[in-house]
Amino acid sequence: MFIRTERSIKEFIHFYPIVSTLVIIHIVLWLIIDLLQLPIGIQIEQWGIGNNYFIAEGEYWRLFTPIFLHGDVMHMLFNSFSLVLFGPALEQMLGKGKFLVAYIGSGFAGNLGTYLMNPDAFFFHLGASGAIFGLFGIYLFMVFFRKTLIDQANAIIVLTIFIIGLIMTFLRPGINQEAHIFGLIGGFALAPLLLSNVHPFSPWRNRQRYSDDDTIQFDPNRWNKKRLIPRSIRKNLLWIIIAAFVLLGLLSRIGFL
Question: Which of 20, 80, 106, 129 is labelled catalytic?
Answer without folding.
Answer: 129
